[in-house]
Amino acid sequence: MSTVAGLVLAAGGGRRYGMPKALVEYGGSLLVERAVRTARAVCDPVLVVLGARAVDVWRTADLDGATVLANRDWETGMASSLRTGLEGLRAWPGQVDAALVLLVDMPGMTPAALERLAGHAAPDALAIAAYDGVRGHPVLLGREHWAGVAATATGDEGARRYLATHPVVEVDCTGLADPTDLDVPPGGVPSAP
User: Fold this and answer.
1) How far is the C-alpha of 187 from the C-alpha of 193, rounded, in Å?
2) Res. 68: pLDDT tops 90
3) What is the rounded distance in angstroms from the CA atom of residue 48 to the CA atom of residue 44?
């Protein structure tokens, strides 16, 4: 059985949202707490990449069971967070075969969707969740692809460029999770904890 790590990307400043999304309260908990809990239900280890207001997030959020990584270059975009997370996994003391990459701003993500992707885990795996035929998140990156993903990730694109040039298994997660991300606050007003 393959070892699958959860990699929660939660470093962004939330420019359009008006605050870092890791600190946004949603349904009684912070978005970063929800993402970590969802990942922990399926993955071990779980790494969470923080950046904007990282100290506030670390002090405020219950990240029990997750390893926190700091992305000092978070302002350059999501790619730097993905690289930070993959570097952390490469240095992990135990063997990790694949990483499930989750974004902090998707509160409708579920363990069921992660389980379905985790079923494809292997060192050479590349898989992406699809909802009604549209690619979304999470993304499963086998260990053999981490260096290539890190080398091609730029700005806010993350793994997109790499995935576009390699065979990827689309895993139907329709009905298992809500793939909607929170780009702007409901009503247009940020909510601070």
Assistant:
1) 17
2) yes
3) 12
